[in-house]
TrEMBL record:
<dbReference type="InterPro" id="IPR023397">
    <property type="entry name" value="SAM-dep_MeTrfase_MraW_recog"/>
</dbReference>
<keyword id="KW-0949">S-adenosyl-L-methionine</keyword>
<dbReference type="InterPro" id="IPR029063">
    <property type="entry name" value="SAM-dependent_MTases_sf"/>
</dbReference>
<dbReference type="GO" id="GO:0071424">
    <property type="term" value="F:rRNA (cytosine-N4-)-methyltransferase activity"/>
</dbReference>
<protein>
    <submittedName>
        <fullName>Uncharacterized protein</fullName>
    </submittedName>
</protein>
<dbReference type="InterPro" id="IPR002903">
    <property type="entry name" value="RsmH"/>
</dbReference>
<dbReference type="Pfam" id="PF01795">
    <property type="entry name" value="Methyltransf_5"/>
</dbReference>
<comment type="similarity">
    <text>Belongs to the methyltransferase superfamily. RsmH family.</text>
</comment>
<keyword id="KW-0489">Methyltransferase</keyword>
<dbReference type="GO" id="GO:0070475">
    <property type="term" value="P:rRNA base methylation"/>
</dbReference>
<feature type="region of interest" description="Disordered">
    <location>
        <begin position="46"/>
        <end position="67"/>
    </location>
</feature>
<feature type="compositionally biased region" description="Basic residues">
    <location>
        <begin position="48"/>
        <end position="58"/>
    </location>
</feature>
<keyword id="KW-0808">Transferase</keyword>
């Protein structure tokens, strides 16, 4: 390995063949909406008079919503983090670019069972989670930060630079590296530093994947992620990628567009929207986020706040973003690769933001610990409730021959965190430990 450069000698690995250079040898996310329940589905339809039969049907559905709501609220409370909210922690590591989600819970996930001497943040962003992890683990010797978005990585790298400067003054050492890479390349990145890290003969102690978009991505209109700002229909996480949302809307087969809205956006009125998008092509197509939002606004029943067109638009934007970045297939492949890179006793934590992601994480975790296909009916595999003051988050665990799923049910943000950061409300944390 090339000798690490001293503090402030930073270099991004922008070219795929160029090896990453160390940050320093020093003393050392729009949120995507959660899967909607049937109680908050929004009607998206052509304007016109509502038939009496339709009104009666809607009234019946309304009664079902009221009856179902107490159970849904109970289930949501059951998975909430019971940890005491540390406002000072969020104050130190949150900033204008991004507020890290489930920060206290993520830190707790890596307190045990082994010292955290090596850590990989697969979605560096503004480095909120990474900085908190470095601060909590002075024993850390190797840090790797990855992000497919070079702009986000540059911001995070700057924050790490400032932290390393202070750590150097206290006499500690930490080799820190950043890579402009999608987390699906985690084996390649680790192998470029030390082959044993990639093949699992030694492995790393901890890996974090935060699947949410950061505020700095959502708030930039030129990225095309926001339903509230007019910009190009882009939605690429990797600016070097070729496929854009505009290409899908204007060029892909009509049935494929509908499938994307149905499968990736879980949009109940996907057929109607599919037809409207096809009609828009005849009028010149859709070329900006404003064009797409206006199409949805014209054709959707509008009610107050998030119960109106914004929910439908958010689902449509989510579907397009997933398709543009092939997010679900990349996620499943990356979970397998990340688990392979863990040392014995190492942990992988994943923060997801909608049901499609969480479903993949849950299913893949079970497959990983059992070495094959997993069945969602895993009650017989669940270990007894564990009363552990050091790890109150993991009171129900699922044991397998290859590891332990520490979160049979995902951890969701506390009410205090939701008040601080509304974009975290749909976040879910799942953690797996390698045997």
């Amino acid at each position: 390995m090339a000798a690490a450069r001293r503090l402030f000698s930073f270099h991004l690995a922008l070219h795929p063949r160029e090896p990453a250079r160390p940050l320093a040898t020093a003393a050392t996310a729009v949120a995507v909406p959660h899967r909607r329940g049937k109680h908050d589905a929004v009607a998206c339809k052509a304007t016109g008079k509502t038939k009496p039969k339709a009104k009666a049907k809607a009234a019946n559905k309304g009664g079902e919503r009221l009856r179902r709501r107490p159970l849904e609220e109970h289930l949501k409370r059951r998975t909430r983090s019971a940890a005491a909210f540390d406002a000072d922690l969020y104050g130190r590591h949150g900033h204008a670019h991004h507020v890290p989600v489930l920060l206290g819970e993520v830190l707790a996930a890596f307190r045990r069972p082994r010292p955290l001497r090596s850590f990989v943040d697969c979605t560096l962003g503004a480095a909120g989670h990474s900085l908190a992890m470095m601060e909590a683990h002075p024993e850390m010797e190797l840090y790797i930060g990855m992000d497919v978005d070079p702009t986000a990585l540059e911001i995070g790298r700057g924050h790490i630079e400032a932290f390393l400067a202070g750590r150097e003054a206290n006499g500690g050492e930490l080799r820190a590296y950043t890579h402009v890479k999608n987390f699906k390349y985690i084996k390649q990145v680790l192998g470029s530093l030390d082959e044993s890290l990639a093949v699992g003969s030694s492995g790393v102690d901890g890996i974090l994947i935060d699947l949410g978009m950061s505020s700095m991505q959502v708030n930039r209109s030129n990225r095309g992620f926001s339903v509230l700002q007019d910009g190009p229909l882009d939605m690429r996480m990797d600016p070097k990628a070729t496929l854009r949302a505009e290409d899908i809307l204007n060029s892909w087969p009509e049935l494929e567009v509908g499938r994307i809205l149905r499968d990736y956006g879980e949009e109940s009125n996907w057929q109607f929207l599919q037809k409207q998008i096809a009609k828009a092509r005849e009028m010149g197509g859709l070329h900006s986020t404003g064009d797409l939002v206006k199409l949805i606004q014209r054709k959707c029943t509008i009610s107050k706040g998030r119960q109106g067109w914004i929910k439908t638009a958010t689902r449509v934007f989510q579907a397009l973003r997933i398709a543009v970045n092939d997010e679900l297939r990349v996620l499943e492949d990356s979970l397998h690769s990340s688990f392979d890179c863990l040392a014995t006793g190492g942990r992988l934590a994943v923060v997801s933001f909608h049901s499609l992601e969480d479903r993949i994480v849950k299913k893949t975790f079970l497959e990983l610990i059992h070495g094959g296909e997993a069945d969602d009916e895993d009650d017989d595999l669940t270990l007894p409730d564990i009363d552990d003051e050091d790890e109150p988050w993991f009171n129900q665990r699922v044991q397998g021959r290859n590891g332990i799923v520490l979160t049979k049910r995902p951890i969701t943000p506390s009410q205090e965190e939701e008040k601080l950061n509304q974009r975290c409300r749909s976040a879910k944390l799942r953690v797996i430990q390698k045997a």
